[in-house]
Every structure is written in C-alpha cells, then in structure tokens.
Design goal:
The complex is a heterodimer of chains A (291) and B (369). In chain A, 73% of the residues lie in helices and 3% in strands. In chain A, a hairpin with a 2-residue loop joins β1 and β2. By secondary structure, chain A is mainly α. The chains are: A mainly alpha (291), B mainly alpha (369). Chains A and B meet through α4, α9 and α11 of A and α6, α7, α13 and α15 of B.
Chain lengths: 291, 369
C-alpha cells in the first residue's frame, strides 16, 4: 500500500509536468489549429535562461522561475508576432513544419548562449518530507503538485468565467466568426502562444532538479504531452490535462510493476491500441468536416 | 468488384478524359508527354557525374572527407525522396524516419556481420521488416486525422530507441554496431569508392522508380488527394489505401537509407537515431522542394553537406556548437514562409527574373497546404 501511495504521489508530480506542457499544446491547438511541436524546446530554452539568471545573480529559485516564465512569455509572443502571424497563408502542415524548424533553432541556439555543459536548477524547497499514508513525499513535490493543479484551475476559471476567456473560446470555435464579432483574435492568438510558452518553461523548471537543465531535457515531456493530447482528445481544453495525469500514473505503474526497461514503450503501445477503439480520445467528440 | 471499377473511373475522370481502364502505365506516360518528357537522361548524367567523384578524389582534387560527406548526402537524399512521397504528395508527416532508418541499419549489420548472410538477401530482409512494422503502424494511425501519424510515429520512434539499446544481440547496445563494406554475390568485396558508386546507382534507380511511381495511377490518385481530400473521396479514391501506400514507400526508403548508412559509415550507434535526425530529414524535403524528386537531393546537400563542407570552414563562427541546427532551423522557417516550393526552383526563378529584367511579377506562389 505504501509503495502504491509513493507511486501515486510521484505520478501526480510527473503528471503535473506533463499536464502543464500539454495544456500549452492544446491552448495553441485550439486557437491556431496547429500542433506546436516546439513546446518542449521553448521550455528548455527558458529553463536555461532561468538557471543562468539564478547562477549569475544568486536570487531565490522562485524569482528565477518567474524570470524564466517571463522570458518564455516574451519568447512566445515573439514566435507569434514574427513568424506565425506572417504565416497565415501557409496551412496547418506548413505551420507544424515551422515548429520543427523552431525546435532545431532553439536546440542550436541554447548551447551557443549557455554552453554545452548541463546546468543544475535547485529544488524550490530544499528539504523536508511529509509522511502521507506510509509514503514519504518531499515538500518540493507537494509544492509542484499544488502549483500545477492550482495554476490549471485558475486557467480553467479564466477560460470559463471571464470575458477574455470567452474570447479565447470563441476564437477556438471559429476564428473568422470571432473576428467578425469584434474579438481581437490576433491578440488572443498571441496571448495563447505566450501563455503556452510560459507553461512550458514552468514544466521544464519543475522537472529540472531531477534531471539537470540540458538541451534534451524536454524530449520525453514533449512526446508525453503530445500523446496526452491524443489520449485526452484535441477537442476540449481539459481532455489533455486528464490524459497527462493518466500517462504520468500509468508510466510509473508499468515502470514499477511490469518492467523498468519496457514500461514506457509498453504504455505508448497501449495508447496506440486505445486510439483504435476511441479515435477521438477519452473526452473527444467526432468533428464533422464540412466540404 | 464494382467498387474497384468505380474507383478506376473516378481517377480517370480526374485526369479529364483518360481511357486507360486497364491502367497500362505506358499509356499514362504517353498522355504526360505533352507536359514533360521523363528526365531519365538528366538523372543518368547526374549519376555519371557522381560516379566520377571518387576518381576525381583519387586525382587529389577534392578531399577524402568530402567523399564521406557526399556519401552521407546521398543516403539521406534517398530517405528524403521516400519521405517526399509521403509529405509532398499526401501531406502527412512521419517523425519515425530515424527509427526506421536505424532498424534497417542494425538489421543489415547483424545479418551480414553476425549471420554471414549474402548482402542482397540481407538488404531485402532489412527493408521488409521495417516496412511490415511501418504498415502496421500506418494501419492504426492513418484511420484517424492526419496529425495522428506524426504523434504515433513519434511514440514508435521512442519505442525503437529503447529496442536499439536493449536488444544487444542484434544492436550491441550502447557500444554501437560495426558493419563492413558490402560484398556482392560473396565474391566482389567493395571498398569505399565502390560503395559510394553503388549508392549512386541505388539513388539513380530509386529516382527513376519514384518518377514512374508518381506518374502512375497511384501517383495521380495521391496528387488528386493532395488537391482536396473531399474531392478525391467523392471521385472514389480510397484515401486510406493510398495514404498507407505512401507511408509504406517512405518507410521502405528510410530502411534502404539505413542499410546504405551502415555499410558506408560502417558504424551505428543507438542515440544517433533520434528525433533530430527525423527533423533533419523533414528539413531536407522542405528546403529542397516538396513534390519534386530532385528537391530532396538539393535539400540533403544543404542540410547535411553545407554545414560540414562550408560552415565548418568559416572563421570564428565555424566552431560554434549548434551552428548547423540553427542554420537548418532558420532555413526551414524562411523557406516555408517565403519560398514554399523549395530551393530547387531557385534556378528556374532566377532565370525568369533575369528574363523579366527588373519587372518582377508579383504573382503569389501557391501556398503549400
């Protein structure tokens, strides 16, 4: 039982990381109708920014994380302003290829600026553990879980309750009509890119203490987040988040109870089989394409 | 049976009054003559030029490393041509290219070095196994919306990477797998030059094959599909079947590329078959030119040749880490945004520009969908 609880809590922590990343992907998908494959690498680059800032100024990790998220916010805005806005004529596949180009660009530029050796980002809370039902959970893990969950709750409240949230949802459902109704879709799309990028940076920083800040740190997060979107369905904002927690949990369970080498591979295989039966994901509805 | 007949009529209708109910290829090509002659001569000339390169190297005009780089360009060009059938003609993205390449490479290395199978037989086996796996993945993911293929292949590539590390019998794990130059019919032992020439022959052969494939019934169906999936479907084109065919071709070419890789470089290492490589292959097509056969060759040269041959020679910035990635990444974005047809049209457009003088026509290039 205590082992299971231990797995449950560590899954909640990794689940939060995946959920933040996949939330970024789905926000962009909903507003721009394209998949952002560069979500992870934007997070990686800005995790470097935060760590570099931390090392050179010696501020607290919280402030460094804030700086990282801020620089990610700007990165996201720039990506939209410089590239995506001027690529309206390109089509969804072209835009996805642009994000592949961005991955290569960020992966190339990071070692140029910050050097090739991995940097280490400290935990937000250095020490201390809670004993919950036989499982020992670090304070830092609890913080990550709480921050992840509350940030997502806030975002959903924002989407459902505020006027700007309504604007986002309108843009998501039909951009042209939204434009005609006076919704500033350009601003919404730019905001979506900015928020997505800072969510990516936060997820990278949550992960950073465990695996150091390096260029390939977000590779597996990126894949898990995309698979979470497939699992949860691309049609709703909350589907991918649920998918992300399921992936976090099943990855750890398979890892512990089945095989430590093949757990992850097995999970991807199971999800591939799952989408045969539910092609639109757990929560997805079928979208009818009009000609 | 009736369905099949309808399908044929559908495709013919799309080509405005064709009459090849039996689907004879020759006839199809005959119709195309009005547009363009098959560029076999140009292909063969290009091949001849490449075949001469090792001799030129022996004469000391170009360095030995250049041949290695150009060999790299050739096998990535082959992978690119295959991927182009998928991306250019059916608009699907695969991110598992590197995985399929790796699988072909490891299988061929294992079969020739450890099991001592004849080279050609091992090539057939090491292309067929990735192809079968690719088709199974395609069967699952192509039923869904287009972008699922990208994610499914991404996940599969991750599984492959684990397989490459764990199946030490075949792949030799982290230490990497060695292979030798090919040995044809058990007697003709190739050296580096001959392997290079062999790769050129494979490249030219595949270019001609791809040209014929694109201009066959299947190719025309793919083109129709690319124009509008709904219209193609209405004409009775079985989207799923043709998408699967295109994915199969891409997988097979990737495996061939992997086989050539391992017998030319003579070494395969598990972390080499990563997402970055798949992205570079995508870059090859996008930069070179989608929906062309020559484009991937140019693209492969730009992505894999230029950084090695030119960028590294540059003073000061030549030794900066990640320069090649930045170069490729920026090129992808710029080409997609401003020159979506690819750099292969650069020569043509320059000529046009030259003819028109300063009056540059402002017609928009067709957007790549």
């Amino acid at each position: 039982m205590s082992t299971f609880m231990q797995i449950l809590f560590s899954s909640l922590e990794t689940g939060s990381v995946y959920a933040l990343a996949s939330l970024g992907i789905i926000i962009i998908f909903q507003t721009s109708r394209m998949q952002n494959f560069a979500q992870g690498s934007v997070g990686m680059l800005n995790a470097f920014v935060a760590t570099f800032f931390l090392i050179n100024t010696g501020v607290s990790p919280y402030f460094a994380a804030f700086v990282g998220m801020l620089s990610a916010f700007v990165t996201g805005m720039l990506v939209d302003f410089v590239i995506m806005r001027n690529a309206k004529h390109v089509g969804a596949i072209g835009k996805e290829i642009i994000t592949f180009g961005l991955i290569m660009f960020f992966l190339g530029i990071a070692p140029m600026i910050f050097g090739t050796s991995p940097l280490s980002f400290p935990r937000f809370i250095q020490s201390g553990t809670f004993e919950i039902m036989g499982a020992s959970v670090t304070h830092n893990a609890v913080l990550n879980i709480v921050v992840g969950l509350s940030l997502m709750t806030l975002l959903f409240l924002f989407l459902q309750k505020t006027k700007w949230g309504l604007a986002v949802r309108v843009t998501a459902s039909n951009e042209k009509t939204a434009q005609l109704m006076g919704v500033p879709t350009k601003l919404i799309t730019m905001g979506a890119w900015a928020v997505a990028a800072s969510l990516g940076a936060l997820s990278a920083l949550m992960l950073a203490p465990a695996i150091t800040v390096n260029v390939s740190m977000m590779d597996s997060v990126q894949i898990s987040a995309l698979v979470a979107c497939v699992l949860g369905g691309f049609q709703t904002f909350y589907g991918p988040v649920i998918g992300a927690y399921i992936i976090g949990l099943s990855k750890n369970l398979l890892h512990f109870y089945v095989s430590s080498t093949w757990g992850e591979a097995l999970m991807y295989l199971l999800i591939l089989i799952f989408i045969i039966f539910r092609p639109n994901g757990l929560i997805g509805k079928k979208k009818i394409k009009k000609v | 049976m009736r369905e099949v007949k309808d399908k044929r009529r559908g495709i013919d209708a799309s080509k405005r009054g064709g009459s090849d109910v039996n689907g004879i290829d020759k006839k199809g090509k005959g119709r195309k003559v009005t547009e363009k002659k098959p560029p076999y001569k140009a292909y063969l000339l290009f091949g001849l030029f490449l075949i001469l390169l090792p001799t030129i190297q022996k004469m000391g005009l170009i360095g030995s490393a250049t041949i290695t780089v150009l060999g790299t360009v050739i096998f990535y060009a082959i992978v690119g041509i295959g991927m182009n059938v998928l991306l250019g003609y059916s608009g699907l993205i695969s991110l598992g290219t590197a995985g399929f390449m790796g699988m072909g490479a490891y299988l061929s290395a294992y079969l020739t070095a450890d099991l001592n199978l004849p080279f050609l037989l091992s090539v057939v086996v090491s292309v067929c196994i990735p192809l079968i796996i690719g088709l199974v993945i395609g069967l699952i993911s192509l039923r869904l919306a287009g972008y699922y293929l990208a994610i499914a292949t991404l996940a599969v590539a991750e599984i492959f990477r684990q397989v490459f590390i764990e199946f030490e019998v075949v792949t030799n794990g982290f230490s990497g797998k060695n292979a030798g130059y090919p040995k044809l019919f058990g007697v003709i032992q190739f050296d580096r030059q001959l392997t290079f020439i062999f790769m050129v022959i494979v490249l030219i052969g595949l270019m001609i094959f791809t040209y014929n494939f694109i201009h066959s019934r299947t190719g025309r169906a793919l083109l129709t599909m690319r124009g509008s999936e709904a219209a193609a479907q209405a004409m009775g084109i079985n989207l799923f079947r043709y998408k699967l065919t295109a994915f199969g071709i891409a997988t097979a070419y990737a495996a061939i590329g992997g086989v050539l890789y391992v017998h030319f470089i003579r070494f395969a290492y598990p972390s080499g078959w990563n997402l970055m490589l798949s992205l570079q292959i995508l870059a090859v097509i996008v930069i070179g030119g989608m929906q062309t056969i020559e484009g991937p060759i140019l693209g492969s040269f730009v992505v894999f040749g230029v950084p090695e041959l030119i960028l590294k020679q540059l003073p000061v910035i030549g030794n900066v880490d990640g320069l090649a990635y930045v170069f490729t990444g920026v090129l992808i974005v710029v080409v997609i945004m401003f020159y979506p047809n690819g750099m292969i049209y650069l020569g043509n457009d320059m000529k046009k520009l030259w003819k028109k003088g300063r009056k540059h026509g402002k017609e928009q290039l067709p957007a790549s969908e």
